[in-house]
């Protein structure tokens, strides 16, 4: 119980720190969201009166007194679901705007990350088991190269190869806007899958290098342990030794590392969405930054931060169940 209480306390402190940074960082950036809205209204021929500025200031949550009072109001609004009005998608609420883009990112990043993790482990297990062989000599340097390749650069290469040259997949977008109407139909689903293949392939290939080499090295280290030698002396089959003895123990650091790598994967996916103009959270974040949309930026940062913290919290709890030695040390 002490182990779990320490984990809960740690992540509560991390959540408080994330909320504080989420409040401070947008306010340190130059610009004024109220002025951005007024400029947009003026460009459309709207009347910008002093009463208009006061009304927009109150609606955007910018008129809350000193910075301390704004912080208190910010915490209250976070937990009550009142995240403010988006400047970029004015007059929509931030929660409404994020809800329209979040499913795209969850389907793309979530599915691709899980698939990538299992492929990483499978390739690393086989490379470590066949260490020094042809497969190991190929997969290890290739994974190292992909680990150093930026997401956006690989995305540009895929666009040039598969979209511009071979014309296999569309270059950008989330679905065929001209021919398909969003809804629970086969036409929309198949179109969305076809448009998501290139962004998903970019995330998949870029993130493969993060775990293959690490899993391969852990397999090599585990195979030198005494219990592996004992299993071989007992005459157990190589398949059972590889999966039940070597891989079962070698995968533990990879499970722990999955939580720390999820942040890098999410960050890379946001860049990938911008390159492909994918209608996800990454594209929305770019528009929020260019529009000085404090409320929308805070909402997106909060979603990303909480997601990473929750994933790491679940993995830490699962790790304590999978490897009881971590609980005994605490």
From TrEMBL:
Q: Which family does it belong to?
A: Belongs to the binding-protein-dependent transport system permease family.
Q: What does the UniProt keyword field contain? A: Cell membrane, Membrane, Transmembrane, Transmembrane helix, Transport
Keyword Membrane appears in the UniProt entry = yes
The question of whether Thylakoid is a record keyword is answered with no
Compartments, record wording: Cell membrane
InterPro entries listed in its UniProt record: MetI-like, MetI-like_sf
One Pfam family, short name: BPD_transp_1
Membrane topology, record value: Multi-pass membrane protein
- Where would I find the ABC transmembrane type-1 domain in this sequence? 102-315
**Source organism:** Bifidobacterium catenulatum subsp. kashiwanohense
Q: Which GO terms describe its biological process?
A: transmembrane transport
Q: Which domain of life is it from?
A: Bacteria
Q: Which GO terms describe its cellular component?
A: plasma membrane
Q: Which residues cross the membrane?
A: 101-126, 138-163, 192-213, 250-271, 300-322
- Name under which the protein is recorded: ABC transporter permease
């Amino acid at each position: 119980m002490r182990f779990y209480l320490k984990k809960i306390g740690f992540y509560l402190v991390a959540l408080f720190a994330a909320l504080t940074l989420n409040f401070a960082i947008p306010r340190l950036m130059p610009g004024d969201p109220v002025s951005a809205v007024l400029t947009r209204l003026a460009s459309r021929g709207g009347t910008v009166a002093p009463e208009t500025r006061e009304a927009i200031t109150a609606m955007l949550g910018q008129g809350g007194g000193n910075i301390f009072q704004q912080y208190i109001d910010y915490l209250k609004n976070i937990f009550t679901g009142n995240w403010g009005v988006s400047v970029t998608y004015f007059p929509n609420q931030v929660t409404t705007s994020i809800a329209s883009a979040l499913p795209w990112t969850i389907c793309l990043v979530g599915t691709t990350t899980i698939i990538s993790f299992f492929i990483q482990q499978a390739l690393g297990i086989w490379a470590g088991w066949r260490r020094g062989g042809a497969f190991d000599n190929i997969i290890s340097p290739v994974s190292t190269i992909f680990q150093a390749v930026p997401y956006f650069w690989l995305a540009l290469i895929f666009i040039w190869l598969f979209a511009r040259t071979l014309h296999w997949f569309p270059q950008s977008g989330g679905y065929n806007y001209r021919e398909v109407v969003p809804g629970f139909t086969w036409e929309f689903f198949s179109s969305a899958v076809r448009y998501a293949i290139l962004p998903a392939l970019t995330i998949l290939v870029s993130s493969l290098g993060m775990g293959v080499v690490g899993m391969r090295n852990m397999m090599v280290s585990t195979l030198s342990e005494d219990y592996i030698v004992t299993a071989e002396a007992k005459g157990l089959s190589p398949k059972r030794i590889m999966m039940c003895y070597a891989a079962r123990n070698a995968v533990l650091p990879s499970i722990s590392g999955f939580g720390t790598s999820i942040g890098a994967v999410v960050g890379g996916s946001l860049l990938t969405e911008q390159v492909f103009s994918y209608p996800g959270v990454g594209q929305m974040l770019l528009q929020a930054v260019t529009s000085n949309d404090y409320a929308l930026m805070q909402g997106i940062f909060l979603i990303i931060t909480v997601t990473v913290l929750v994933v790491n919290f679940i993995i830490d709890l699962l790790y304590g169940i999978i490897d009881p030695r971590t609980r005994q040390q605490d």
